[in-house]
Design a protein that fits this description.
There is one protein chain. The protein is of the alpha/beta class. The chain has a single domain, classed as Glutaredoxin, CATH 3.40.30. It has 5 helices and 7 strands; from the N terminus they run H-E-E-E-H-E-H-E-H-E-E-H. The strands form 2 sheets. Strands 3-5-4-6-7 form a 5-stranded mixed beta sheet.
Length: 122
């Protein structure tokens, strides 16, 4: 089982995203596969509305990108590291560099188009 599968596997339940923590963020950033980080918080109503959509997009794009979720309620310093000012925020990271970010409650076709565009960027 590779590192990605180990990180996705939680209590025997395979997820299509990774819960990002202080312990695994650097390993994820060093992988050779594009990464989308979804920043959210428990108090954020828009975030709760976006959760199911992020899970769906993670399943549909698992061959292209790794999806990770950061709960800023528990991991505030990761948000500071990425200068997160608004929630929800999605960041696309490719070749260890942020290529783009989206803020707010977006519709699936918009996010999927954003994923496709950033995946194709060099």
């Amino acid at each position: 089982m590779d590192i990605i599968q180990k990180l996705k596997n939680n209590f025997g339940i395979e997820k299509k995203y990774i819960d990002i923590t202080y312990d695994n963020i650097d390993n994820l950033l060093n992988l050779n596969k594009p990464l989308i980080i979804y920043f959210w918080a428990e108090h954020c109503g828009l975030c709760r509305m976006l959760h199911g959509l992020v899970d769906e997009l993670a399943r549909e794009n698992q061959d292209k990108v790794i999806f990770g979720k950061v709960n800023l309620t528990n991991y505030e310093k990761i948000g500071t590291r990425f200068q997160i000012e608004h929630l929800p925020t999605l960041i696309f990271i490719k070749n260890k560099t942020e290529t783009d970010r989206r803020i707010g409650n977006l519709q699936k076709p918009i996010i999927q188009g954003w994923i496709n565009i950033n995946f194709e960027k060099n």
